[in-house]
Write a structure and sequence with these properties.
Blueprint lengths: L2 E5 L7 H14 L3 E6 L1 H7 L9 E4 L20 H10 L5 E4 L3 H12 L9 E6 L7 E4 L9 H18 L7 E4 L10 H10 L5 E5 L11 E3 L2 H28 L1 H9 L1 H11 L7 E4 L5 E3 L6 H17 L1 H13 L1
Parallel strand pairs: 1-2, 1-4, 2-3, 4-11, 6-9, 7-8, 7-9
Antiparallel strand pairs: 5-6, 5-10, 10-11
């Protein structure tokens, strides 16, 4: 049975939504959850019928969002440190945390280690597209400064992530640039283009609109650009939702139309809701680490756990290692 360590104290709202999300996940899938955090607080949130189905590992310390990520290695009694140690020691197959993302990524990289031949791990997110199939974008925050060889590996890791996790037989990989021509981009992207051009699935440079139009399955960029794209996209989605609500509130005609369009709005919300995905995997490390939003609700935690289970089951790490080993030989 797959075992998932869950940082019960991470997140903006304490253990309550995390425990609830874990319970919801247990109702739908068979796995062994290991909640890491303050035992008394966790137990107070567990119904009697579930106390024997969930393991609890005591951790008194919590790394807050305002704490420095560099301190995470020293705080060995923290919930995220102990959760990641469970994976390192083989007592868990993956870890989920809605806590300090920098601490989670640092600990996962340093304590679990990188896959063989991987230079840097990358944070992956899924973006909505017009076709209904989500596109994979990486990196979205783990590495703000990248060399061409890092972006090249992101392309390979993204290819196998899309193939294994999204079940896309032949993922199309694009390099994010300011134009489709091979001459566009900065020096790093131009060099990356040359390295990627012979890799299977590579379709060349793509622009920002291609992230959402369904013409590309994997978008490669550094973490600085990726995080800006991600946050800007979230802002646009939030602003559009706000305008729709305001127009409906101010217009009687729009109110009538909104009642008829309720199903459409519900589907739109589902496409842009981070809770539907659950979290972003840190790809390129040994094991599995899912970095969830600090404001994660129970639904987001449930889906983050499901994502961790799928990640472990697919063997994506083996496929990445095998391809990088082929390139080395």
């Amino acid at each position: 049975m797959i075992k998932i360590a869950i940082d019960a104290m991470g997140g903006d709202f304490g253990p309550e939504p995390i425990v609830r999300g874990t319970l919801e996940a247990l109702k739908e899938k068979k796995f062994q959850p290991i909640l890491v955090g303050k035992k008394d607080e966790i137990l107070s949130l567990l119904p009697k019928g579930y106390k024997d189905k969930i393991l609890i590992v005591e951790a008194d310390d919590v790394i807050d969002m305002g704490d420095a990520a560099t301190d995470a290695l020293k705080r060995k009694e923290s919930s995220i440190y102990k959760a990641i140690e469970l994976v390192r020691e083989g007592q868990a197959d993956g870890v989920v945390s809605a806590g300090h993302s920098g601490a989670t990524m640092s600990l996962a990289t340093l304590r679990l280690g990188r896959l063989k031949n991987v230079l840097r791990p990358a944070l992956v997110t899924l973006m909505p597209t017009k076709t209904g199939q989500r596109s994979v974008m990486l990196d979205v925050g783990a590495n703000v400064d990248c060399k061409a060889e890092h972006l090249f590996q992101f392309g390979i890791m993204g290819y196998y992530y899309a193939q294994d996790m999204l079940k896309i037989d032949h993922p199309r990989v694009g390099l994010l640039a300011n134009g489709e021509e091979s001459s566009k981009g900065n020096e790093v992207t131009k060099e990356t283009f040359t390295m990627l051009k012979n890799e299977k699935g590579f379709i060349g440079n793509v622009e920002g609109n291609n992230i959402f139009d369904g013409s590309c399955d994997v978008i490669v960029c550094d973490g600085f650009i990726g995080n800006l794209v991600l946050k800007a996209s979230e802002g646009v989605a939030s602003t559009i939702s706000y305008f729709i609500k305001e127009y409906i509130r101010k217009s009687p005609v729009a109110i009538t139309g909104a009642l008829l369009m309720r199903k459409v709005f519900k589907l739109l919300k589902k496409e842009i809701d981070y809770a539907e995905i659950g979290g972003a995997p840190l790809i390129g490390i040994k094991g599995c680490a899912i970095v969830s939003h600090g404001k994660s609700n129970p639904k987001a935690i449930k889906n983050a756990i499901f994502q961790a289970i799928r990640y472990v089951n697919t063997g994506v790490n083996d496929h990445i290692e095998n391809r990088l080993e082929e390139l080395k030989s």
